[in-house]
């Protein structure tokens, strides 16, 4: 009986704990090896995926760079040409058409009006900038110009006199109110500021003012009543409607 008891004690106190420790260590080693193997596989798959994407994108990037280079090269070649008589000969006199050389900056400004508008804004020529933007009849361009002037909006409308003519202010309200789907907060701030800067006593706008302001009021009201108009925008609309209505 003493031997089985001693054996049981040895098993419980020594063999079993050592077996459990060895098993636990072996499990940790297997687990570590498995996790490292999975990490290596994942990294290899990720690398293969990146290489595949890069291989597919490289021809497209090369084509775009080549096309861009060709377009710019053609533009620069055109700009370096001197005025050439029509037909390439030496014909001169009335009726002879010429190719007028210009600058690359002017061509870029023609293709992207925001270049010229940004320059005018940076120079403080706000009236000319907004005249050009409004003349394009593009709400997107007008909104871009407002955004470019946003850091100095308080300075513009706080100046005496405001450096924007009454015609520009009225046109600005009309165009911005025609589409409030994009950047409504920015547009409403500019509509409100322009409205507060209006001079109802200006006789040159006596006929146009109520008509345009009425259209602005109707557009703002329609947006305010639309079910998908966000609550925050609806609150801004109520304030601007009150300001516009004060001039009607």
Furnish the topology, listing elements before pairings:
Elements (H helix, E strand, L loop, with lengths): L1 H78 L24 H8 L1 H10 L3 H10 L3 H11 L3 H6 L7 H12 L6 H13 L11 H18 L5 H15 L3
Structure in words:
This protein has 248 residues and is mainly α. It has helices spanning 2-79, 104-111, 113-122, 126-135, 139-149, 153-158, 166-177, 184-196, 208-225, 231-245. It has 2 domains: 15-72; 106-245, Annexin V, domain 1 (Orthogonal Bundle). It has 10 helices and no strands. Helix 2 packs across helix 3 (113-122). The longest helix is centred in the N-terminal third of the chain and has 78 residues, at 2-79.
How do the helices and strands follow one another from N- to C-terminus? HHHHHHHHHH
Count of discrete domains: 2
What is the 3D shape? elongated
Largest sheet: none
Radius of gyration in whole Å, from Cα? 36 Å
Low-confidence segments, ≥5 residues, pLDDT <50? 82-101
CATH topology of the largest domain: Annexin V, domain 1
Structural class: mainly alpha
Q: Helical content, roughly?
A: over 70%
Instruction: Estimate the strand proportion.
Output: under 5%
* Amino-to-carboxy terminus distance: 113 Å
CATH H level of the largest domain: which superfamily?
Answer: conserved c-terminal region of ge- 1
How many beta-strand segments?
Answer: 0
How large is the count of helical segments? 10
